[in-house]
Design brief:
about 280 residues; 4-stranded antiparallel sheet; 11 helices; alpha+beta; 5-stranded antiparallel sheet; Enolase-like, domain 1; flavoprotein
């Protein structure tokens, strides 16, 4: 078997050119934490990789108008540090700062977490869903922005030569939380993940809520029925647990060697309780 080739792109334009030229044989390489374990999963490596590690703009975290722009090359550790202390973005800061282990967090990137379609337990995906994120996709022909939910549906079919370059977050306001249930210890993939963002009026009633669930099904998604059930109510952990129990049949848990599907669904009400309690 021929060893894969690696081209270290000096600029974003050079990376886009290289990906377009390599077509279906090429793929981006950033932190590499998923790709390096491909042989363990009995997956073949791609013939050609385009390294993105030298492209400074892909690691930039900065305001862009009224939004926050986060480069796809930002690592989990960089995200956790940059967002620390922001109540509305706490879900993303915690997702980045508590996933996997310190060594992985220093290497794994935002873009890799979002683009790895076969990784159901990615922490950043539900956190970004609850924060109403958009993604920017670029190619040699231009760029486009998509809601994250739309990108997740399209990512298995995105053609070659396209690269996720950044994530954009609207003004957060409110408060958010991210809770996860690993099987045994830090570093394990989570059995289930809940990310919650909520805004409340002066009386403490929910004016808007966004809840995303990860690891339970193959792709993270919003829990829209629970969001609607919480609207207009006081944000109470016990009440949220009860409503989540009533609505848990919205999910069909995935079976895996780590945990059966019924267990993943069964722990969701407890995670909702923890997420609401964390907001207080």
């Amino acid at each position: 078997m021929t060893a894969p080739s690696l081209y270290l792109a000096p600029t974003l334009d050079a990376a886009l050119d290289a990906l377009a030229e390599r077509g279906t044989e090429g793929t981006p390489l950033a932190g590499g934490t998923w790709i390096m374990r491909a042989p363990i999963r009995h997956e073949r490596l791609r013939p050609a990789y385009v390294g993105l590690g030298r492209i400074a703009e892909l690691t930039r975290i900065a305001p862009d108008g009224d939004k926050l722009s986060i480069g796809a090359g930002a690592t989990h550790a960089q995200l956790a540090g940059a967002l620390a202390g922001r109540a509305g973005l706490r879900a993303l800061a915690d997702a980045a700062g508590r996933s996997a282990n310190p060594a992985i967090r220093r290497a794994a990137t935002l873009g890799g977490n979002l683009c790895t379609a076969d990784f159901a337990a990615a922490d950043l995906v539900p956190a970004l869903l609850c924060l109403d994120a958009e993604v920017e996709i670029r190619s040699r022909d231009g760029s486009e922005r998509l809601p994250l939910e739309r990108f997740l549906a399209l990512r298995p079919s995105l053609g070659p030569g396209r690269l996720l370059t950044r994530v954009l977050l609207p003004p957060a306001g409110g408060a958010s939380a991210h809770v996860r249930l690993p099987l045994r210890k830090a570093g394990d993939y989570p059995t289930a993940i809940v990310s919650l963002w909520a805004a409340r009026d002066e009386a403490g009633h929910v004016t808007q809520a966004r809840i995303a669930v990860g690891a339970v099904e193959a792709v993270a998604r919003r829990w829209t029925r629970l969001e609607a059930a919480l609207a207009g109510r006081p944000l109470d952990a016990g009440d949220a647990h009860r409503l989540a129990t009533e609505l848990a049949d919205d999910f069909t848990g995935r079976d895996s060697i780590e945990a059966p599907g019924w267990y993943r669904v069964g722990v969701l009400p407890a995670l909702i309780r923890r997420a609401v309690a964390a907001l207080h």
